[in-house]
Amino acid sequence: MNPSPQSDPSTTGFPAQEAYLVIEQKPRDKAERSRLTKLRQYVQHHTHQADLRDLAPAVRELMGPGYQIGCGSSHIWILPLAGSDMPAAPQRLAIVADRLTTTLQDCNGPRVSTRLQ
């Protein structure tokens, strides 16, 4: 997997973004928990981005073929697909978002405001 370069926002025209992973649903099994742990570590090592969408290829590779990965202007969402041993999840499993513009809550943790006061 090629790590996404940490871009200088002044060269891209986008304001800086600070990536973080929010796990919104409990993992369905140990394999999914492991994938999410690896993804969280990857995102933590690639926090500063000019455009969060640059992380999408790595998210796809780390999560594997059982997930639909989509992007918005400041987020990447992860939706589990149906497999031979698991049904599709009706809701998003996780999201990589911009800490500077969003406040989202992990399924295991309290809501934490990350916006500047």
From TrEMBL:
Q: Region Disordered: which residues?
A: 1-34
Highest rank taxon of the organism: Bacteria
Compositionally biased tracts (Polar residues): 1-14
Q: Where is the composition biased (Basic and acidic residues)?
A: 25-34
Q: What is this protein called?
A: Uncharacterized protein
Q: Which organism is it from?
A: Hymenobacter psychrotolerans DSM 18569
